[in-house]
Amino acid sequence: MTRALNKLTAATLKAKPAGKYSDGGGLWFVKRGDGGAQWVLRVTVHGRRREMGLGRFPSVTLKAARLQAEKWRALGAAGLDPIKERERERREAERRLYRLDDIAKDAFESRKAELKGDGKAGRWFSPLELHVLPKLGKVPVGDLDQRDIRDTLAPIWHTKADTARKAMNRLSICLKHAAALGLEVDLQATEKAKALLGKQRHKAQHVPALPWQEVPDFYQSLAEPTLTHLALRLLILTGVRSRPLRFMRLDQIDGDIWTIPAEGMKGRVNATTDFRVPLSQEALQVIELAKPFARDGYLFPSVRKGVISDATMARLMERRGMEARPHGFRTSLRTWLAEATNAPHEVAETCLGHVTGGAVERAYRRTDYIGQRRMLMERWAAHVGMEERCIAKIIPMN
């Protein structure tokens, strides 16, 4: 058997004319007419003869070709298809080349088109960047399992429950992205990790809000014609969330109506429906004061580019030693509507852009109560502007 192998010698390979030359054991040296050459291994598996290329000569030497042939012949003798096994090894090696940080960045780029402003700016990515990638970023995504994820998120699973939940969600998306790329990953790893971590004990904390009775004094303190003061005043007057206000465009205003595009509204069931906000006379005056700051169509631009950040207004309140935050003014408005007016529930909820009722009810109720809301927002403006001081009085709806 030994004499049937190793028939060729390295010294004579280059000089051989075009043709096929056996080295024994199914290994062949194939020389082409143009001078190029390659190695081919013939092996029989399950009664079928298979041919697999082992590489070009001289990049693959005679010695290297023999080592490969020995490996693949052994697998063939064990009943395994060498070609399929090589493909499996190639996929395995490729899988190990993709690290989690590469997959995470690619997944983020792929999702940017469907993310809102802050998400595009990096808020979607930050839970991964801060709490996952420092520990697991260099790990091949195919090697991730539930124990890795559990150990990474355990320190914040109960103490920073919302952040941990977001990180887990983003990680699940990354694994699905990797699977879509053809990589072998455990798509159930995050669910298994949740089972290992257990139910979160952390209770959600509401954003601190200023009592509606104290809003007028704070509103009156925003007397400077700065961008931050004006943004806070308009935030209070309209009851909207921070994002649509910060991304407010002049072309969204038509008379005393500000139309927020559907994609700018959080929690809207019908993503194709824009949201109309009635602007009080006070709100229109604030907008006029802000217009000189406008740039690129945005009413509240940042100093350098884009719009003011989410933290700009919050920092002003922090510097004043206040626990309340800008988002809390929505609570102030909603409580005022409940305690100082007799506005119907669905009208009050619509003032904040909330969706009320079931799908069938909404299908028949095709109104946004703009007339009633306009009257309420004028009264709210009168309240925060200190024109209306009878705070305990119930304001009738006409």
From TrEMBL:
- Show the InterPro entries listed in the entry: DNA_brk_join_enz, Integrase-like_cat_sf, Integrase_catalytic, Integrase_DNA-bd_sf, Integrase_DNA_bind_dom, Integrase_recombinase_N, Phage_int_M, Phage_Integrase
Source organism, top-level taxon: Bacteria
Please indicate if the UniProt record lists Translocase as a keyword: no
Protein's GO biological process:
DNA integration; DNA recombination
Keywords of the record, alphabetical order, are: DNA integration, DNA recombination, DNA-binding
Q: Does the keyword DNA-binding apply?
A: yes
**GO MF term list:** DNA binding
Segments passing through the bilayer: none
Q: Where is the Tyr recombinase domain?
A: 205-377
Q: Which family does it belong to?
A: Belongs to the 'phage' integrase family.
Cited PANTHER family: PROPHAGE INTEGRASE, PROPHAGE INTEGRASE INTS-RELATED
Q: What is this protein called?
A: Integrase
